Amino acid sequence: MAASLTVFRRFNLALVIGGVTWMAAHLYLIHDFGFDWYVAAVDSAVSIVPLGAACWLIDNNLRYYQPGKGSYINLLIWCLVLAAACTASVWWILPHLNVGDTFGVFLKQSLILRFVTSFLAIGWMAMISLIWYVQQDQKENERRKAEAEKLARDAELYNLRQQLQPHFLFNSLNSINALIGFKPDEARRMIHQLSDFLRGTLKKDDQQQVTLSEELQHLNLYLDIEKVRFGHRLQTEISCDERCNKSMLPPLLLQPIVENAIKFGLYDTTGEVTISIRAEMDDNYLSVMVQNPYDPQTARPRHGTGFGIRGIQRRLYLLFARNDLVETFQNDDIFTIMIKIPQA
Fold it and tell me: What's the pTM?
C-alpha cells in the first residue's frame, strides 16, 4: 500500500512538472511573437488554469472509470468538449485584462491553434492517465489474485498436514491402550512421547522451513513411539552428511514418508525390518533417501505408495511449483523413495 502511494505521488509530481513546463513554453512563445512579458504572462496564466482544470477532470474520471473498447469515442468527445471550453474561457477572459487591441486581434486569429493545442494536451493527458490507471488496476488484480492463490495454497497445505495425523494418532492410542494393562510404565512413556511429538507438530508452520537436524530430532520422537508399538521388529539406520545438517526443508516432511515405509515394511511381515534414511547434498539440492523392504507378493505395495507420498508430492509442488522432486523405485524387494529439496 505504501509503495502504491509513493508511485501515485510521483505520478502527480510528474503532472505538475509537465504543467509548469507547458506554462513556461507558452510564456516564451507569446513573448517571441513580439508581445511584452506582462501580456505573455497574463496569456500564459489565463490559458493554463482552464487547461489544468480540464486535465485534472479527465484524469480524475479515468482514475475511477476506464472506458471499454467500444467507449473510446466517448473519451474523444470529452476531450473535444473540454478543449472547446478551455478555448472559450481564454477568448472571454483575456480581453478584460487590459492586454491591448493588437493582442485582441492576435487572440482571434489564434483561436483555432489554441483549440488544437488544448485538444492535444487534454488528449495526451487522457491517454497517459488511461494507460497508467489500467496498469495500476492490472497490478492490483494480480496482487489480489496472488493473495487468493496464497490463501488457497496455505489452506491446501494445512489440509494435507491435517490428513497426515489422525491415523497415526489412532494407532498410537490403540498401542497405549494395549500397553496399559501389562506394561503401564511403557504406556506412560509412550504418552509422554506422543505428547512431545504432537506439541512439536502444532508448532510447525509450512511457511517457515527447518533445518535437517531439527527435522531429524522430531522424526526420532515419532520413531520412539513406533518402536514402542513394534518392539524389536523395527530397526532404523539414519546417516546424514555433516554438510547437510543446516540444509533447509519443509517441516514434518519426513514423518509421513517414514510412516509409509513402516506400513509397507512391517505390516506384512513378522521378522525384523530395517528402515534406512540417508541424507546428502547433491549440487544445490538436499537429497533424502528412505528405503524399506517389502513383500512383492502382497497386494498393497502394488497399488501404490499410499496417501503419505502422494501428499508429499502435492505439498512440494505447492511450495516449489515442481513435480520432479519425488521419485520412487522398487528393486530386489526394496522400496526406495528419493526426495530433493532445492536450497536457496
Answer: 0.56
Nearest to 300 by CA among 263, 338, 258: 263
How does DSSP assign 105-163, residue by residue?
Answer: HHHHHTHHHHHHHHHHHHHHHHHHHHHHHHHHHHHHHHHHHHHHHHHHHHHHHHHHHHH
Residue 78 grid cell: 470529452
Cell of 38: 506582462
> Mean pLDDT over residues 157-164, rounded?
60
Q: What are phi and psi of 271, to 5 degrees?
A: -95, -170
Backbone φ/ψ region at 191: left (φ over 0), alpha (ψ -120 to 50), beta: alpha
Q: How far apart are CA 332 and CA 101, in angstroms?
A: 107
pLDDT band at residue 7 under the 50/70/90 scheme: low
> With contact defined as beta carbons under 8 Å apart, do 190 and 228 qualify?
yes
CA-to-CA distance for 318 and 305, rounded, in angstroms? 20
Rounded-to-integer distance, Cα 31 and Cα 25, Å: 10
Residues 289-307 as b/e (b if ≥16 CB within 10 A, e otherwise) read bbbbbbeeeeeebeeebee
Q: What is the grid cell recorded at 305?
A: 505408495
Grid-cell match 492490483, residue found: 140
**Pairing between β-strand 273-282 and β-strand 234-240 as defined by DSSP bridges:** parallel
Residue 304 · residue 311 · CB < 8 Å: no
Residue carrying C-alpha cell 538436499: 286
Q: How far apart are CA 190 and CA 223, in angstroms?
A: 11
Report residue 317's pLDDT band, with 50, 70 and 90 as the boundaries.
Answer: confident
Could you give the angle at the alpha carbon of 102 between the alpha carbons of 98 and 103, nearest 5°? 60
Cα(237)–Cα(275) distance, integer angstroms: 6
Type of residue found at 13: L
Choose between 194 and 82: higher pLDDT.
82
β pairing state of 273-282 and 248-249: unpaired
CA geometry: angle 104, 106, 108, nearest 5 deg: 70
